[in-house]
Write a structure and sequence with these properties.
The chain is α+β, with helices and mostly antiparallel strands. The protein has a single domain, classed as 3-Layer(aba) Sandwich (Glutaredoxin), CATH 3.40.30.10. It has 5 helices and 4 strands; from the N terminus they run βαβαββααα. A 4-stranded mixed sheet has the order 2-1-3-4. Helix 1 packs parallel to helix 3.
């Protein structure tokens, strides 16, 4: 069964999971859930994530809803991901330390860049919509 990623490209955590899937060449199916169109609050999506947030994955029936848990799960269960989280415990600790730093120190400032530039959002939507045809 193929892994399913539920995402919205405006979501920084969604883009983090998408980047790992793409860089590691992990097969997956995309399901676009629009934050702006309130699809994250739809009854169908709330069955996947009762909190109404993206990203989320369905990995053969295992539903994960937080990007940190998703990223850790993927590097633990997929071939070709050791470069993203080596076996060295000290290196893993440094990666773990970065997650909250990114979320609370970097992400709030980056979102203003995306939200403040009307020209960026349509381009992002075009990029992601062009790949929607692969979704069943």
């Amino acid at each position: 069964m193929v892994l399913t990623l539920y995402l919205d490209p405006i979501s920084s955590p969604s883009r983090a999971v998408l980047a790992l899937l793409e860089f590691a060449k992990i097969p997956y199916e995309r399901k676009f859930i629009s934050f702006f169109d309130k699809e994250t609050k739809s009854p169908a999506f709330l069955q996947i994530n009762p909190l109404g947030k993206v990203p989320a994955i369905d990995d053969s029936g295992l539903i994960l809803r937080e990007h940190e848990a998703i990223l850790r799960h993927l590097v633990r269960t997929r071939e070709g991901t050791k470069a993203f989280l080596p076996d060295d415990i000290k290196v893993q600790a440094l990666v773990d330390q970065y997650y909250p730093f990114h979320h609370f120190a970097v992400r709030p400032h980056v979102i203003h860049y995306f939200m403040g530039s009307a020209s960026l959002l349509p381009d992002m939507k075009i990029i992601f919509k062009s790949k929607k045809k692969n979704i069943k």
